[in-house]
Specification:
Elements: H1 11-14, H2 23-36, H3 51-57, H4 60-69, H5 73-79, E1 86-91, E2 99-104, E3 107-115, E4 133-137, E5 140-146, H6 148-153, E6 157-163, H7 169-182, E7 189-194, E8 209-215, H8 218-230, E9 235-245, H9 250-253, E10 257-264, H10 270-280, E11 286-295, H11 296-305, E12 309-310, E13 319-320, E14 330-335, E15 340-350, E16 353-364
Parallel strand pairs: 1-7, 3-6, 7-8, 8-9, 9-10, 10-11
Antiparallel strand pairs: 1-2, 2-3, 4-5, 5-6, 11-16, 12-14, 13-16, 14-15, 15-16
Helix pairs in contact: 4-5
Amino acid sequence: MVFPIIPPWKRARYAKPEEPKSLRDLAMDAFIEELQYQLVVDVSKIPAEFGDDIWDKMTTCEIIQTALNSNAVDWFSENVISEPKSMTVGFPGSGDFGSVELKFQHRETLLWRFEKPSKNKKNKHDNDNDEWFDIKIGDHVLKTRVDWFASQNRYNTDAIVSVLPSTDFKVRYDIVQWLCGFFRCKVEKFEFEDSKLCSYWNFVEEPGDLKIERCTDLDFANRVLPERQRKNLSTSVSRFRIDEPIRITAQSIQQARINTAFLNFTTSDFDTITSFYKELIPKVRIICTKVLNWTADQLETFKSELGLEDYSDELLETYRAEKFMEDSEQKWYKLLEIGYAVVVYVNEKEPEVYDQIGCTRWYKKV
C-alpha cells in the first residue's frame, strides 16, 4: 500500500521553480519519491544534511509513516524532525477517543484523531483498500487514513484519523509517548474527561497545562492537585466531585481553576470547612459540601465569619435566581464587588442539626 502523497491543493507549496536542477536536487527529488512510495531505503547511506530537504518536501504524516516503514525512527528523529512549537493531547470522552495536535513553526499543524474499534469482525473500512493503511507503533497496529475533510476545512492543517485496536487507554498513552520521543518534545497541554484517565501520567512532575472535565479520584484530589499547586503548574477542573470523605484545604488548591465543587467534608473540622468557603467563594461558581451534624451555634459562627446577611426577596429585583438546593429553608447572601451575589443554602437534617451547606452565584439581571 502506497502512503497517500502530498494532497493536490498543497503541491504548490513544494513546487520547484522551472529552472535547471543541480545534480544534488535531482538526487534529492529521486530520494523523496523513493521515500513517498515506500521502497526499501537504507538511511545509513543517506547524508544527514538531506534531513532538512525531507522535512521541507514531505508532509508530517508521510514522515511518520516513512520512518516507521523504513525502521529508521531514530534517524528521522535526529536528522529530519524539527521540534513542534506545542503539543496538545485531548481525551474528552463521551464517545470521543481523543486527538493529538502538534503545531510547528512555518509548517502545517498535524492533527491526529482516534476512533474506537469496530464491534464487528469486519471493520467498516475493510473495503477501502485504496484509502486505509497501517501504522504500527510498538505492538499496536492502527488502521489509518488521511482525514481529507479536516485537512481542507481547518486552516494550515494536515489531519489523519486512526482506528484504535482496543479501548484500553494504554494504547493512546503509548501513542502519545511515541510521538513525544519521535518529535523530541513534551506535551504542553492535556485535556481529559475524567481524572481517572490520568493514572498513566505522572502529573506531579508533568509540566503541561492540565484541564480536567471531571475530577472524581480521591488520590488525585488529595495528592496531585496540591502538589501541582506547590510547583506552580496550571490546573483546571470543571467539575470537582468527591463522594468519599476528603481532607483538603482551600490553601492547597486555591490556584486551581475550579468551576463546581461537590465534596464530602464529614471528616473535616469546622475551621477547615469555614476557611474553605471563605477562600473559594469568590473563585468557584458552585460549592456544595456534606458536613457532620453541625449545630445552630456552629452555623451562626460560619455565617458571621463569612460576613453573610439574612436572605431577602428584594435580592430578586436585581439578581437572577439559580435553582439550587431548593428544599433548603435557610439561606443567606453576600454581595461581591465583581458583580454578582453569592447565596448560601443550608440543609437541616433534623431540628437544629445541619448536614449540608452549599452556595451558588446569582448574576445581575440584564
